[in-house]
Amino acid sequence: MSAPQQRRESRRSGTAALSTRAALPANCTPSAGVQLRLGTLRLTGLSRCTFSSYWAVFGNRQPFLNIDTAQLSLLDCLVALGPLRSPQKCGEVSVAREQRKLAAILASDVVGYSRLMGRDESGTLARLRKNRAERLDPVLAKYGGRLVKLIGDGALVEFGSAVDALSAAIEFQQVMAEANCDQPADDALVFRMGLHLGDLIVDGDDLYGDSVNIAARLEAQAPPGGILISQAVHEAVTGRLKATFTDRGSLALKNIERPVQAFQVRWDTAD
Questions:
Q1: Is the Cα torsion angle 164, 165, 166, 167 positive or negative in sign?
Q2: N or C: which end of the chain has fewer CB within 10 A?
Q3: Does some domain include residue 16?
Q4: How far apart are the first and last CA of the chain?
Q5: Number of C-beta neighbours around residue 78 at 10 A
Q6: Phi, psi (rounded to 5 degrees) for 117
Q7: In this predicted model, what pLDDT tens digit does every residue of 137-160 receive, in sequence order?
Q8: Do 60 and 185 belong to one domain?
Q9: Containing domain of residue 83, as a range?
Q10: Same domain, 122 and 250
C-alpha cells in the first residue's frame, strides 16, 4: 500500500501510527487501546486530539515516543499515552499532591499600631519584642501553639485544637490587660484577635487558604482587647470552656465570598 493510501486508511479507521525513538521500558506494558507491532504503536478507538495539543501536554516531558508526522493527521494522545506512560507502569515520578490539614488558626494585631509607630518607632518595636518573649511565647508553649509568621504588628498562630486555641487567646488577652493597667491608654499595647477552624494548605512552615483569610478578617472586626470566633470554633468549644459568646450574626467579610457567622467571646477575669 502506498503512503497516500496509508494516510487515507489511517484517517478512516481513526488510528495513528507512532514510531518509537527508544525501546519501551521493560516494565511498561501497553494498556487497552494500544498495540505493539514491529516497533510501531497503533492507537485505536479513542477520542481525537491534535498534534499541537499532544505537544502542549507531553512535549516538555521528553516522551520516549516520537511522532512520525508523515503518517499522522490526528492523534488520540490524552487517553492512550496517559495510561501507557503512567507512573505506576513506567516508574515515572508523579506530580506531588497538595498537602492540607485541619487546624485552628489564630490571627492577631495591635490596635493603633501606626499611631504608636509614628510616635516612637524604636520604643514600640522594643515593647513588641519584649511582649512576645515574656507573654505570647509562654502562652503558646503552654497550649501547643505554633507561630506561623509575624507580619509587622500581626501574628498568625496554628493550633491542633480549637479549645486550646481559644484558651490561649483568652489567657493572652488577660495577661495583656494586666500589663496595661499601669500604662496610659495612648501607650498601651492592645490586641484584637480572630479565630477560625478550617482546612489549610501547607507549604513548608507556612499556611495558606480561605481559613487563614477568614481568621484575619474576623480579627479586623474584633473589638480592642477582644476575640471574635467563627461558628466552626463556637461549635467546637461550647461547653468546654468557662466563656460566654455573643452572636454577632452573619458578617460580610472583605474578600470572603460567603457570610461568616461570628461570635464575640466574653470571659470572667477571675477565671
A1: positive
A2: N
A3: yes
A4: 93
A5: 15
A6: -70, -35
A7: 999 999 999 999 998 889 999 999
A8: no
A9: 3-90
A10: yes
